[in-house]
Write a sequence for this structure.
């Protein structure tokens, strides 16, 4: 079992320890994400885009700070870490500009009447993310997820907890409603219970085959 902590990989110094959230707190956060989703799933795409552009601005304004955090937690070279924050900002702007078009109704030719394909948000999407790109792996999923009107519950790798918390702060500071992005500081063996929550509608994972098997079960 991996502890949830920041360990400087340069000297193995434990910088900060975190206690795993207990099941009631995990469910409270997931339930809050769900209730927030219900209130905001009908928000206009333009409003979400406004929030997402603010998130991009925060990423660029504080990219050195976020770069240092990535370097501290998982040893990424500082220049690469700053570039990762910049790349995340690019994703925010891209989906802010294009999500409305991607999500617009698509007419379908039928012999009688009218038909179309409509894209509707699902609800809370649980993301299980790895440590190697601590910001980018989350943003590449979370940005289109939020722009589509969904909520996020993030179980990040146990060695990058401060990155996980910082990402949640970025989206909230950008204007997304409090609770819509929930960071879950939990251990690997708690993931099954999180998936079983009635509020979790989908799961996305980037990780090992054993982790994928557990999620699939």
């Amino acid at each position: 079992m991996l502890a949830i902590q920041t360990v400087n990989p340069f000297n193995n110094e434990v910088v900060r320890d975190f206690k795993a959230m207990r099941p009631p707190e995990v469910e409270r956060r997931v339930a809050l994400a769900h209730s927030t989703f219900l209130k905001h799933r009908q928000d206009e795409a333009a409003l979400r885009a406004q929030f997402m552009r603010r998130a991009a601005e925060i990423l660029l304004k504080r990219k050195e700070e976020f770069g240092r955090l990535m370097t501290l937690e998982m040893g990424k070279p500082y220049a690469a870490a700053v570039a990762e924050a910049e790349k995340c900002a690019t994703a925010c702007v891209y989906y802010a500009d294009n999500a409305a078009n991607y999500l617009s109704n698509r007419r379908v030719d039928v012999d009688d009447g009218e038909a179309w394909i409509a894209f509707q948000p699902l609800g809370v999407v649980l993301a299980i993310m790895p440590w190697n790109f601590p910001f980018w792996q989350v943003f590449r999923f979370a940005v289109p997820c939020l722009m589509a009107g969904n909520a996020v519950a993030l179980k990040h790798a146990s060695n990058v907890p401060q990155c996980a918390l910082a990402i949640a702060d970025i989206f909230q500071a950008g204007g997304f409603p409090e609770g819509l992005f929930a960071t879950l500081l939990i251990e690997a063996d708690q993931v099954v219970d999180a998936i079983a929550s009635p509020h979790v509608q989908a799961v996305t994972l980037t990780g090992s085959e054993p982790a994928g098997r557990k999620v699939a079960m």
About this structure: The mean pLDDT is 91. Strands lie at 5-8, 13-17, 106-108, 115-117, 124-128, 151-155, 181-183, 200-205. Residues 156 and 164 are 6 Å apart (CA to CA). The radius of gyration is 18 Å.
